[in-house]
């Protein structure tokens, strides 16, 4: 590992980029656990300061994808890859994903515990607070996704080498190449992805990488808290990437009648209460800002992924689904089925222990 650290972080000018082959070797040493935490930290910091190039990012994606667990292919699903740092405002992508799942569009969420530098509330924490059991065997997870059309995968379970690097990334306290790598692991060989980025530079890096990861339709969004959630208080420019090219698209919420102040930071308990009320069909005036954000983002995704014919139809459908409590129905089934599998596995373990005794 020392030679790769010296190559990109020796202090010499100009700094040298690694070739694809060299970066594969460096990533391989990190993924296999042959390098120490100190060496991993030094390499990631040096690469961050230098700025990774396409060959280096492609190598890391290829290596860590090769170490990731492969699930049954759900090609028509949508992978939602949010910020590694978690969120401080309402995680719109959760109720939006529940709404899309309610019309039979499989949604795959992934992530781990929130990391620095901003360290907000992770999707893991949010789902556990709702009662979703996240630690399930692969086959059980696949079965539940098939029946409920929604699933969540912990990054460290999906790719154990990423889990081993968690402590290093926490101690570094910086966004590194690993933030991008974990967003494009694509565990279910999905054709569709919506990926949140913090900076336009990260968006540019993802343009070729998203295709390399097997996505046929990728929407790259510099959203709220660096997430895949678009605000309705301002216009946004997103990137749409396919194997045939990419294009920019201006999203103008006011054009569709959406006007709102920005979402504000909230504590976990506040987020849970608001989400519970909205997915339960509550359309009280004090929830209009958050509810409109959910309808807007759900309507966009319904149109982007060809579930409706127009944006207006998407917004109307999202509003109708909320009023009919379809998101709540999906969440209830998700909680019940994941916990049923957990109980079944627990009884099975107890039975095996008694037989062994």
Automatic annotation (TrEMBL):
Pfam families: Glycos_trans_3N (PF02885), Glycos_transf_3 (PF00591). GO terms for molecular function: glycosyltransferase activity. The keyword Zinc does not apply. InterPro entries: Anthranilate_Pribosyl_Tfrase, Glycosyl_Trfase_fam3, Glycosyl_Trfase_fam3_N_dom, Glycosyl_Trfase_fam3_N_dom_sf, Nuc_phospho_transferase. The keyword Glycosyltransferase applies. Gene3D superfamilies: Nucleoside phosphorylase/phosphoribosyltransferase catalytic domain, Transferase, Pyrimidine Nucleoside Phosphorylase, Chain C. It comes from the Bacteria. Residues 2-68 form the Glycosyl transferase family 3 N-terminal domain. Signal peptide: none annotated. Residues 86-324 form the Glycosyl transferase family domain. Keywords: Amino-acid biosynthesis, Aromatic amino acid biosynthesis, Glycosyltransferase, Transferase, Tryptophan biosynthesis. This is Anthranilate phosphoribosyltransferase.
């Amino acid at each position: 590992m020392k030679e790769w650290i010296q190559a990109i972080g020796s202090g010499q000018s100009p700094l040298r980029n690694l070739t694809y082959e060299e970066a594969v070797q460096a990533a391989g040493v990190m993924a296999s656990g042959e390098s120490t935490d100190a060496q991993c930290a030094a390499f990631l910091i040096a690469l961050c300061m230098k700025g990774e190039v396409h060959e280096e990012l492609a190598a890391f994606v290829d290596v860590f994808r090769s170490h990731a667990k492969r699930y049954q292919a759900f090609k028509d699903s949508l992978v939602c890859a949010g910020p590694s740092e978690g969120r401080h405002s309402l995680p719109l992508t959760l109720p939006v994903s529940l709404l899309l799942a309610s019309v039979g569009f499989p949604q795959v969420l992934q992530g781990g515990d929130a990391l620095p530098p901003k360290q907000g509330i992770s999707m893991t924490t949010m789902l556990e607070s709702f009662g979703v059991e996240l630690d399930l065997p692969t086959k059980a997870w696949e079965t539940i996704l098939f029946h409920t059309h929604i699933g969540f995968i912990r990054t460290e379970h999906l790719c154990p080498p990423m889990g081993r690097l968690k402590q290093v990334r926490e101690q570094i306290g910086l966004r590194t190449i690993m933030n991008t790598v974990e967003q494009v692991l694509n565990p279910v060989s999905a054709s569709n992805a919506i990926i949140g980025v913090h900076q336009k530079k990260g968006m540019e890096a993802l343009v070729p990488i998203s295709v390399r990861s097997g996505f046929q339709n990728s929407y790259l969004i510099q959203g709220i808290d660096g997430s895949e959630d678009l605000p309705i208080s301002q216009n946004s420019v997103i990137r749409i990437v396919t194997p045939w090219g990419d294009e920019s698209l201006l999203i103008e919420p006011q054009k569709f009648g959406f006007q709102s102040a920005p979402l504000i930071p909230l504590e976990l308990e506040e987020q849970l209460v608001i989400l519970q009320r909205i997915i339960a069909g509550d359309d009280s005036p004090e929830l209009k800002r958050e509810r409109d954000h959910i309808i807007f983002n759900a309507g966009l995704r319904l149109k982007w992924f060809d579930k409706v014919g127009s944006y207006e139809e998407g917004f109307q459908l999202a509003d109708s689904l909320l009023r009919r409590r379809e998101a709540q129905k999906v969440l209830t089934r998700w909680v019940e089925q994941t916990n049923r599998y957990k109980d079944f596995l627990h009884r099975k373990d107890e039975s095996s222990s008694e037989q062994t005794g």
